[in-house]
Design brief:
The complex is a heterodimer. By secondary structure, chain A is α/β, with parallel strands linked by helices. Chain A has helices at about 1-40, 155-165, 275-290, 305-320, 345-355, 360-370, 375, 395-405, 425-440, and strands at about 40-45, 55, 60-65, 70-80, 85-95, 100-110, 115-125, 130-140, 170-175, 185-190, 200-205, 215-220, 240-245, 295-305, 325-330, 385-390, 410-415. The two termini of chain B are about 30 Å apart. The chains are: A alpha/beta, B mainly beta.
């Protein structure tokens, strides 16, 4: 019996031991799995130039961090293409990245002519594959558009301004006291523009007891199909006007297009294209600023992003009363160079051309020559600030530089190597300091 | 002279001023010294329990002429008193009028500013107890900037000026200062600053006088701490306290000042 008892105890002990061991083994396995699951492979591309612009050959470092508990084997590669996607160079190297380790691979890209290029870095290893998209520029200040400005470009716009001058502006200012803030008064502004369209916007002015106080002006221009609201803020030195051009926001009026139709509205006739009126709406707004005794007429900054950036360039080109121009990611620059390179707005133009008998892409591009941001640039003599993203799919950097390089006045460009159709807060801060310095708002 | 240097550091004056804007900074300063450094930089009490005090009322003004140019002027009224056992001497009156032009040279990213100032020093007195009584000229370069740091805003000013007093044994001086200030709130209402500055003055006239305004061959360094409060955009008050930390052939004193900053025409 004692033996039986001992056997039973031993047997139970073995069972418990086996259970403990099994549990321990399971725990170890789970722990190992957990450790593997917790880890990851991550990559980073370091561009060895602050803003992705190189004088000679571009130079990158592709870093891989393997925090998995397993070695990673496979390849790291890059592919350089033109902005239109034509392959230029590639390189593939075999790699083995030990578990819980880092590896870095330096890539010096062969010499390229002045321009912008896309580069994709690919990693394909045991437990991970990924592609990192970047772009870089080679001596972009040497970039020149291949396409000429129409000989009668200035006359075209002078004629538009002459037509605008015949329209009585009938400026109207309506206080919107419910929208006032502690430090600013808000007004609805209305004016008649080209084709006698009614254009609206908002003006906010710092509150002051000094009736003779005058303010510098920020004219904010709208993005594509964006409805602008009153712009407030704490700046006590600045009146801020936000303009809704025809077909947008509270100036939609007769041009009530669908979102994607606005860009080609009446583009078959260069004298009726929507942007002709839109740009004249901006000129009319400068007329409005000049009509206001409480605004400083030689302290006008025009600023906008995307279509707003384009309008900032356009208005600074056609109206010398603009004192500073800030264009962020302006669209419609070097338009002929965008064909085959960007999706929007070229696809929208193509679709429209296909619906118009007798209208061709050539005719469309001929008309758009009068609206190309690049063609306004030589007339822009006021100081201009531009911001671009190297990954911008709508405003490619080469097109932006083709425009920037033609600017006739003092100019500065901020390049964001890892951004697409956007700029950073630092751009806006610099814009503010630049404006305050230029207008002596110390 | 010394007190004026201290009170100028109570606000950041290395930045351009807006055209047509007038900045007025009336101030009152009190300076006290009962010790001095000799020519070997040894600090010792003044003879016979000597005490030097100076009470200075100063009006500083700057007017923005254009974006790059501004006019500056500074007019002090001083009461200097020296007492020692069985001796008492007081001098009072307007002292050295300073008038000048400031030019905004350049900036870096609209954050850091370089300014150049030319100043003429005109003595408005004949009393030898109030100063050298010599006409002088100064050229001063300043570098100033501001930004964000540790969740707050800072500013700094670094200045260096070379001043030559003309006439017999008129000293040539290097006047330098560095100020660093922090705002204490997002509304820029309150700020504190620390400043370091000093003079290095060279002349053939090497005699020591307990009145620092009369020494010509001397050097000193001082530190000061200031607090400023802006009541409105047009009106701010600064209080400041400072002390000399090293010197040669000059008094070893401490000072306190109260300054008002007025921008009457916005």
């Amino acid at each position: 019996m004692f033996d039986a008892l001992k056997y039973s105890i031993v047997k139970s002990s073995f069972r418990i031991l086996a259970l403990v061991m099994a549990s321990g083994f399971w725990c170890l396995q789970a722990s190992a799995q957990k450790s593997k699951d917790d880890g990851e492979v991550s990559t980073e591309v370091v561009t060895h130039d602050g803003d992705g612009i190189f004088d000679g050959s571009a130079y990158f470092t592709f870093s891989v961090k393997n925090s998995l508990n397993t070695d990673q084997e496979g390849s790291v590669s890059y592919l350089v293409t033109t902005e239109k996607g034509e392959k230029l160079f590639d390189k593939n190297i075999k790699v083995k990245i030990d578990r819980n380790s880092n590896e870095s691979y330096d890539f010096r890209i062969p010499e390229l002519k002045a321009g912008f290029y896309k580069i994709n870095f690919m990693i394909n290893v045991s437990d991970y594959d990924d592609t990192t998209r970047r772009a870089f520029g080679i001596r972009p200040k040497e970039i020149r558009s291949q396409y000429a400005r129409p000989a009668d470009f200035d006359q075209f716009w002078q004629k538009a301004k002459d037509e605008l001058a015949k329209v009585a502006p009938n400026f109207k200012l309506t206080p919107l006291p419910k929208q006032n803030t502690d430090n600013r008064e808000v007004f609805l502004i209305e004016m008649q523009s080209l084709d006698n369209y009614t254009i609206r916007g908002f003006m906010t002015v710092p509150k002051t007891n000094n009736k003779s106080r005058k303010f510098a002006v920020l004219l904010g221009l709208p993005g594509y199909q964006v409805s602008l609201d009153p712009m407030l803020g704490l700046d006590n030195d600045l009146a801020i006007i936000t303009l809704n051009v025809r077909g947008q926001g509270n100036s939609r009026g007769e041009i009530d297009t669908r979102r994607d139709e606005y860009i080609f509205h009446r583009v078959e006739d260069k004298n009726k294209y929507v942007m002709r009126g839109v740009i004249m709406d901006c000129v009319r707004c400068i007329d409005f600023i000049y009509s206001r005794p409480n605004l400083i007429h030689d302290n006008i900054l025009v600023s906008g992003g995307s279509m707003g950036g384009y309008l900032a360039l356009a208005i600074a080109g056609v109206d010398k009363r603009v004192n500073l121009c800030s264009a962020q990611n302006p669209i419609l620059c070097d338009i002929r160079g965008m064909v085959g390179e960007v999706d929007w707005p070229i696809t929208s133009f193509r679709k429209y051309v296909a619906t118009q008998p007798g209208f061709t892409m050539d005719k469309l591009l001929n008309n758009l020559d009068y609206y190309d941001g690049k063609n306004f640039a030589p007339s822009i003599t006021c100081p201009t600030l531009m911001g671009i993203g190297l990954l911008d799919p709508f405003a490619p950097p080469a097109n932006e530089y083709a425009t920037y390089n033609l600017l006739a006045g003092k100019k500065r460009i901020l390049v964001y190597k890892n951004l697409a159709h956007e700029i950073t807060e630092k751009y806006k801060e610099l814009e503010g300091r630049w404006m305050r310095d230029t207008f002596a708002l110390f | 002279m010394l007190i004026a240097a201290l009170q100028q550091n109570t606000y950041a004056d290395g930045f351009p001023i807006r055209p047509k804007r007038l900045l007025l900074a009336p101030s009152v300063s009190y300076f006290f010294a009962n010790k001095g450094w000799d020519s070997l930089r040894v600090k010792r009490p003044f003879d016979n329990n000597g005490k030097f005090t100076s009470l200075t009322y100063t009006l500083f003004a700057e007017y923005g002429i254009s974006r790059r140019w501004s006019a500056v002027a500074q007019l002090p009224y001083v009461t200097n008193t020296y007492t020692q056992t069985n001796f008492n001497s007081t001098s009072r009156g307007l002292t050295d009028l300073e008038t000048g032009l400031r030019y905004y040279l350049a900036n870096i990213n609209y954050i850091y500013y370089f300014m150049l100032q030319g100043t003429v020093i005109t003595p408005l007195y004949t009393n030898p107890g109030l100063g050298y009584g010599l006409t002088g000229a100064e050229l001063k370069l300043s570098f100033a900037g501001s930004g964000h740091m540790f969740g707050t805003n800072y500013y700094f000013t670094i200045e260096d000026g070379v001043r030559q007093y003309f006439g017999s044994q008129g000293p040539i001086q290097n006047r330098y200062s560095a100020t660093f200030g922090l705002t204490l709130d997002k509304q820029f209402k309150n700020q504190v600053s620390v400043a370091f500055g000093g003079f290095y003055s060279v002349s053939d006239f090497k005699k020591f006088d307990v009145n620092p305004a009369l020494d010509k061959n001397f050097a000193f360094n001082q530190v000061s701490l200031s607090y400023g409060h802006s009541f409105t955009h047009e009106f701010a008050v600064f209080v400041s306290a400072g002390t000399f930390v090293s010197g040669r052939n000059t008094g070893a004193g401490s000072s306190a000042s109260l300054s008002l900053i007025l921008k009457p025409f916005r």
